[in-house]
Amino acid sequence: MAASPDGRRLAFLTESISERLEKAEEFEIYSLDLTTRSSNQPHQITHNEAIEQDIHWSNDSRHVFFQVDYGSVEGKYSDTQTRLYWADADTGETQRWAAGFAGQVAHYTVAPDGGVIAAARVGTEVQVYAQARPAAAFTAEPGSAGTYEQVASSAHSPRVAFIHSALGKPAEVYLAESADKLAAARPLTSFNKIFLERDLPQGKPYRWTADDGTTIEGMLMYPPGKFDARNLPMFVFLHGGPNEGWGNSFEADWYVWDRLAATQGWLVFEPNYRGSVGYGDKFLRDMVPEIVSRPGKDILEGVDALVKDGIADPDHLAVGGYSYGGYMTNWLITQTTRFKAAVTGAGAVENVANWGNDDLTIDDANNLGGRPWEAHARYDSEAAIFQIDKVRTPTHIVTGADDVRVAVLENYLLDHALRSLKIPSTLLIFPGEGHELDQDPWHGKIKVREELKWLKKYGGISGMTTVP
């Protein structure tokens, strides 16, 4: 909910009673007049096939800002990178902000002058942009390389607060005197200074060409002290979403543990395959309806390029990811036997039960070109389970027992199939946890500990030598 600045109206978002994304029309924006004491019916502002999120009022209390990354404001349901809109609270007329921007508008705040200040992604960089009105230019503000997040403005001051990080710079909160003075911002926190006292992994972007001529980009994270070394054992780390992206940022948790893997001796390869954000809406949609096979080609072609360039050791490769990254891992181990170890989490292995059980039903159908009876051949062809007999890779599996995004049954199915094929596997289930593993902090620690142990056991990197 959001109250208008003049205090006269309340805007709110509706969602499905079942908390499942089954019908786009269940997700809309409404307003309620607060000036009358009598019973008042909410006024529906939006009417579209989009899943609205993150609402804020404009400073003049006339429009409601919102973002969309599931569905479409303009027409039939279709995913895009995260977009920014506003709607007239009386007429419902909707306009898109940053309409000509090719990247993702990741986060925004309403500026004192009535415009917006946004953190937006292009490629591996998330920078700050400003726009005065919908028809004006969406302009990058001068700042530092890396990733800006959670940009916040003041109603009565030009000051801007934000979180910033980069590959070698842990995240902290900063304050700038204005949006055009980001580079001179001063830090307000020093929570993560301990990282600067350590020998951290270093990284850089890496690019290769896919079989259809498309340029694909990703990140390389090197073991400490081995930046730009060659012939390194390589762990292919896959992001979730799939509408996410690796970039020039600093994270270290149970979901993004690339630095922990790098400190164990792995070169970590993080591909931004088809479906990733920051490369245009066409690039994101190119995975539809080949939801794993097209991104899978991008990833394996990236591995081939790194081996050909002498960067990765072809005899010591591993793969892993969580959520869609787990889904993708499950697919890749059916496509090649070159990976010596796999660590997968909360990933589907088939599409029919996954469509029926998860909370993103309408999006699953969009990505696969229809519901199971409308696109049954693709539901099979894009599923790992029907090619599982090709797997030779020892696989560690992790999930939350109460996951409703990817049902725990998908993980039982994968583990059972691998055991029936006598492929080494283990299944780690955290009781009481959903998809986010946010109920007990020890669960995240245990997850990564066991994944690193599995990579060490089957990846065979002990005693490896690298070429400087």
Overview of the structural elements:
It is a single chain. Strand 17 (203-209) and strand 18 form a beta hairpin. The chain is of the alpha+beta class. The model is unreliable at 463-468 (pLDDT under 50). It is 19% helix and 32% strand.
Concise summary:
Helix content is 19%, strand content 32%. The chain contains 9 helices and 24 strands.
List the helices and strands and how they pair.
Elements: E1 2-3, E2 9-13, E3 29-33, E4 43-44, E5 49-57, E6 63-72, E7 83-88, E8 94-97, E9 104-110, E10 116-122, E11 125-131, E12 139-140, E13 147-154, E14 157-166, E15 169-176, E16 186-187, E17 203-209, E18 215-221, E19 232-238, H1 258-263, E20 267-272, H2 281-285, H3 293-308, E21 312-322, H4 324-335, E22 339-345, H5 352-357, H6 361-368, H7 376-381, E23 395-400, H8 408-420, E24 425-430, H9 441-459
Parallel strand pairs: 19-20, 19-21, 21-22, 22-23, 23-24
Antiparallel strand pairs: 1-2, 2-3, 3-4, 5-6, 6-7, 7-8, 9-10, 10-11, 11-12, 13-14, 14-15, 15-16, 17-18, 18-20
What number of domains? 2
Largest sheet: 8 strands, mixed
Count the helices. How many? Answer: 9
State the helical fraction: 10-25%
The rounded Rg comes to 23 Å
What fraction of the residues are assigned to beta strands by DSSP? 25-35%
Structural class: alpha+beta
- Mean pLDDT, to the nearest integer, reads 95
Strand order of the largest sheet: 17-18-20-19-21-22-23-24
* SS elements, strand count: 24
Provide the CATH architecture of the largest domain. Answer: 3-Layer(aba) Sandwich
CATH topology of the largest domain: Rossmann fold
Poorly predicted parts: 463-468
Q: Which overall shape is indicated by the principal axes computed on the Cα atoms?
A: globular
At the first level of CATH, the class of the largest domain is Alpha Beta
Oligomer: single chain
* Measured distance between first and last alpha carbons: 56 Å
The name of the CATH superfamily of the largest domain reads: Alpha/Beta hydrolase fold, catalytic domain
